[in-house]
Amino acid sequence: AQVEQALDILALHPSTASHLSFQLAQYFVADDPPEPLVTKMAQKYLATGGDIRAVLETMFLSAEFRDPANYGAKFKTPYEYVISSARATGVTINNYRPLYGTMQLLGMPTYGCLTPNGYASTQDAWLNPDSMMIRLSFATAIGSGRLPLDHQPDDDEANGGPPVVTKNPNRKIKLLMNDDSDRPGRQRMTPPDPNTVAAALGGYFSKSTTDAISAAPAQLSTALLLGSPDFMKR
């Protein structure tokens, strides 16, 4: 009974209300969420005895959440980027290993966080030159149909994939990503239709992205869409 009482005291403490409200606003609104929004959410938390549904309702109905300045302000985590790319292409997923391998390369393997606070959701945790190179390699591979997502994995892939014994970083990326473009006799996935990808993304792209796609060869359109600055944000 004393332990439960202590937990109730901690759960309803103002510091807990502020901390949880900040975390929720940081995930859904902006890396540095507006202080008035966090305050409103914390007040709702305390007024409702810690009702997270009510706190989220306060956030979703707030002016800050609907502020155009906060639209597309969140940089996608590796998980969000990889999964949203696969969804946008509409390809049938029979082989998840290229997706898992890419998230592993990007430092966010599923269920692999070593600390109890979970993976970060802020841009400074995930935006760096190495991760951008991997993201663009992934966008190019999936956009050109080089990832065997729609094929059942081979025996070597089912047992963990080919061993990574190369010192070449680009080759290592290809192996962990299961990019099979250089494997003789392997049937390639049909490249995703760029129009399907564009429609899935709502057709919203900046002028610079639109100009880059228009100036590039048609076979690069899907890769440019998935690798664009617009698609890196949510």
Write a structural description.
The chain has 234 residues and is mostly helical. It is 54% helix and 0% strand. It is built from 14 helices and no strands. Helix 5 (78-89) packs parallel to helix 8. 29% of the residues are buried. The model is unreliable at 156-160 (pLDDT under 50).
Task: Briefly characterize the structure.
By secondary structure, the protein is mainly α.
Number of helices: 14
**Structural class based on helices, strands and sheet pairing:** mainly alpha
Order of helices and strands: HHHHHHHHHHHHHH
What's the end-to-end separation, in Å? 44 Å
- Our Rg estimate from Cα atoms comes to 21 Å
Count the beta strands: 0
Q: If you average the pLDDT, what whole number results? A: 87
Helix content: 40-55%
Give start-end ranges of low-pLDDT stretches: 156-160
Largest sheet: none
Overall form: globular
Q: How large a portion of the residues is in β-strands, by DSSP E? A: under 5%
